[in-house]
Amino acid sequence: MDEYSRHLLQEHLDADTVHLEAHLPGTVDVERLRAAFTRVLAAHPTLQVRQADSRWWHRRYHWEPAPIGPTAVAATADLGLTRHRALTEPPPLAAGPPLRLETAPAPSGGTALLLTAAHTLADAGTCLRLLCDVADHYSGAPAGHHSGGRAGQRSSGAADTPATVTARGGRPARIAPAASPSPGTGVHLSVLRLARTGAKPPQPTVNDLLLTAVQLTLAEWNHRHGHPTGPIHLSMPIDDRPHGPLAPGAPMGNHNHLATIRAEAPAPDAGAATLPGRISAQTRAAKAAPVTGGGLVAGLVSTPWLPIGAKAPLTRALRRIAAPWTSTALVSNLGRVTHPLDFGPAGPADALWFSAPVRMPRGLSVSALTLGGRLHLAVRHCHQLLAEPAAAELARRCAEILDALAKDGGRR
After folding, report:
1. By C-alpha distance, which of 184, 187, 101, 172 is closest to 138?
2. Mean pLDDT of the chain
3. Angle made by CA atoms 200, 367, 357, in degrees to the nearest 5
């Protein structure tokens, strides 16, 4: 997965970052935070690395141990600018561990912590585990004290593997654009207190409702903009760790694959009563299905006789060819986070979001997790697809539909 992501990456063009943001009620001491971050990385040597020098004739990219740079943990004055940097400026792969932890004043007081990781190194599950361990070290809790807590089985940040493209049911619909001339990406964050619908079948899970809400939102959006409303295909990352990223001994790095959910939403003026059930059946089947080897592109990446100077452009060319069959959007749910994320004097996190990287032609990712009984929703978008006002409107509508679905138990 690391190798595939690296072949796709064009560092002068791509901001392939995983963004994790926690809000704390108190003030964080930056020196104490830096010490905790240093101790945690020392316990996870697979993360304390940088990309080794490579030449076009090398057979693959390699990691090498790296010291933690002085700017890996820093205090900033503006949350908006810090968040923009997390979305648009990935930590360099070759300059040290491609991780960055920054603090900024939170809007309602207290401190916002933003962890940014180059996706080639880590997925969202790894970022969450890293932040939980930093909280434990910062607060003085024993290492792994809260490791029994876990996130759900789905995790963000899976690379665009061949599992994300499909010819079944025709080409997936693209989202009706309302673009901005500015480059880069943006994100819109919201919090919902969802009524639990119950996890026992046939009642839909929160993840089923999230996928349903995104299907309905995109169908409605396209209908309003005179764009094809289907078929809408959603890529759903599935965590390959047996017991989730927070389980004791869970591996760090990128450990997920993508499934495609194809339960197309009906026209906005038609009933959608069966949609959550159809999505639920697909997600259960996707989680139960064996993980395949990844197909042609994965075979190309792992070919021992082909140098990286040829693998990288071929991988990107194959992705461009497959672009018309790329799914409409990515929907990722880390599930319920039971770790308290307690930073001692700064207090426990009272809000937590993550967002998965986005590229065109998909251009949209919807990421969620549940903390303290509230669902934290992040809608990340390429400006080439949606300008800020349009993305804010789409994010608001998605939250409204999700809230309505939860209130009536998915019967909408």
Report:
1. 101
2. 85
3. 145
Residue with structure tokens 């194809």?
Answer: 262
Residue 169: phi and psi, rounded to 5, are 80, 15
Q: Is 214 helix (H, G, I), strand (E, B) or coil?
A: helix
Q: How far apart are CA 271 and CA 399, in angstroms?
A: 19
Q: Specify the range with the lowest mean pLDDT, choosing from 189-193, 213-217, 363-367, 403-407.
A: 403-407
Q: pLDDT digits over 21-43, tens only?
A: 999 999 999 999 999 999 999 99
Break the chain into its structural domains and give their ranges: 2-407
Tokens of 169: 């049911």
Counting every residue, how long is the chain? 412
Q: Which helix (H) or strand (E) holds 115?
A: strand 111-118
Strand 351-355 and strand 17-24: the pairing is: antiparallel
- For 39-96, the pLDDT digits (tens) are 999 999 999 999 999 888 988 888 999 998 888 999 999 999 999 999 999 898 888 8
Task: Report helix angle 30-43 to 124-139, nearest 10.
Answer: 120
Cα–Cα distances (Å) from 25 to 4, 20, 93, 341, 376, in that order, read 39, 17, 33, 12, 17
Residue 220 vs residue 310, higher pLDDT: 220
Both tokens of 390, joined, read 């349009």
Q: Is the full-model pTM beyond 0.85?
A: yes
As given in the structure block, the two tokens for residue 197 are 């619908």
Task: Name the fold adopted by 2-407.
Answer: Chloramphenicol Acetyltransferase (3.30.559)
Calpha distance 125→122 (Å, rounded): 8
**Chain-centroid distance, C-alpha 152:** 13
For residues 124 and 153, what is the distance between their CA atoms, to the nearest angstrom? 12
Query: Of 330, 326, 368, 333, whose CA–CA distance to 351 is shortest?
Result: 368
Amino acid found at 374: R
Task: Work out the widest C-alpha separation in the chain, in whole angstroms.
Answer: 59
